[in-house]
Amino acid sequence: MFHTIIVVGNVGKDPEMRYTPSGQAVTSFSVATNRKYTGANGEKVEETIWFRISTWGKTAENCNQYVKKGSKVLVEGRLTPDKTTGGPRIWTKQDGTAGASFEITASTVQFLSSRGETEGGPVSGGGGMGMVELPPEDDIPF
Fold it and tell me: Is residue 135's pLDDT more than 70?
């Protein structure tokens, strides 16, 4: 069996990098995707879905160095379910409504923003980061 997910969106905040006890780099960041449409009643609707991304090894190091808040990225990877629910991570927003984020363990990250297009500084323009060997899920430090 096999599944893959591809997400294109904007980075929500600067990445955070950690290391596993064995010394492997792990970088995490969030990506927002937006969808705009007109509802049946004619009202304009804007929908945002958040994804939490984890990258490993050299890809993690490159993402930590070049990805900044506001960067546009393409992420390819696999969905990683919440260990307690088996689905997305669910929480209650400040306004009392339910929120959810989906976890993706990335195999490829492509930088889509050109230099100067992001809030946090320069980003490597275009190009894929290649494939990365993923460690077992038990090695994830967070």
Answer: no
Helix, coil or strand: residue 61:
helix
Q: How far apart are CA 118 and CA 90, in angstroms?
A: 29
User: What burial letters (b/e) apply to 95-104, b meaning 16+ CB within 10 Å?
Assistant: eeeeeebbbb
For the chain, the residue count is 142
Whether 108 contacts 77, CB under 8 Å? yes
- The Cα–Cα gap between 111 and 71 comes to 8
Q: Say if residue 84 is exposed, middle or buried (CB neighbours under 10 Å; 0-12, 13-18, 19+).
A: exposed
Whether pTM > 0.85 for this model: the answer is: no
50 forms beta bridges with: 32, 101
Q: Which two tokens stand for residue 18?
A: 């950690």
pLDDT tens column, 25-49: 999 999 999 999 999 999 999 998 9
Cα–Cα distances (Å) from 61 to 19, 31, 56, 73, 99, in that order, read 10, 17, 8, 15, 30
Q: Could you tell me the domains of the chain?
A: 5-137 (2.40.50.140)
